[in-house]
Amino acid sequence: MSSELSARVAPIEALVQRRAAPSSSNLPLVEERAASEEIRKLFAQYREQFSRDDLPGILLCFATNAGLLKGMLQIAEELLFGESLLSRRQKETLATYISQQNACPYCADSHGALLGAQGGSIEMICSLQNGDLNPEQFTNAELALLKLAAKVNAASSTITRADVEAAMDAGWTEEQVAEAVHLAALFAAFNRTANGFGLPSPYPHGFRDQL
Fold first, then answer.
1. CATH topology assigned to domain 88-193
2. End-to-end CA distance of the chain
3. Cβ contact 63:36 at 8 Å
């Protein structure tokens, strides 16, 4: 990692370490000490896979159903955080923008922090979280993919082949566009889960306010 990138990422990584403990206002989160043996084994699997001691709030939402939690861990490992057609930074860019669009403070701030850890600038993160795609912060290809993802999220029934070809004309392959569609739909589902359970931002004073 270059010294310039390290200087940008360090404040965000320090902020990530100050995440608040998970809480919810609408539905209770699964408590590890009261969870079934199957759920506790899946929690252990998560810690091993992602090298994290803490359990994020969204994981505790999915833990109300063992089959759902198991499936989400597989999706996280193989698509969201694993190697695929889109880079990790590109995925976090989509996630931050979609989460803002769905007014999900938990996901918008969580993915904003992860984007920062992948080298996304503070200006880029703020642009995404404001819903203002400043062309100075993104390439034409990135803007095209964000536009498509936003349409999948907000008006999927209006998507046409022309939307796909517009993204491809900007430089994406058809397979990458398909992955972006999957990601937009998945992140929208996570947003609705987080909002339904009532997860607040993991940063008590707001992520952007602390950058």
1. AhpD-like (1.20.1290)
2. 21
3. no
* CATH 1.20.1290.10 in the chain, residue ranges: 88-193
Query: Which residue in the block uniquely carries the two structure tokens 């009261």?
Result: 34
* SS3 call for 47: helix
104 vs 89: CA distance, rounded Å: 20
Predicted pLDDT of residue 17: 65
**Binning pLDDT at 50, 70 and 90, where does residue 3 land?**
very low
Dist CA 139 CA 67 (whole Å): 39
CA 118 – CA 96 distance, rounded (Å): 13
User: How wide is the angle at C-alpha 117 spanned by C-alphas 188 and 57, nearest 5°?
Assistant: 45
Please give the Cα distance from 33 to 180 (Å, whole number).
37
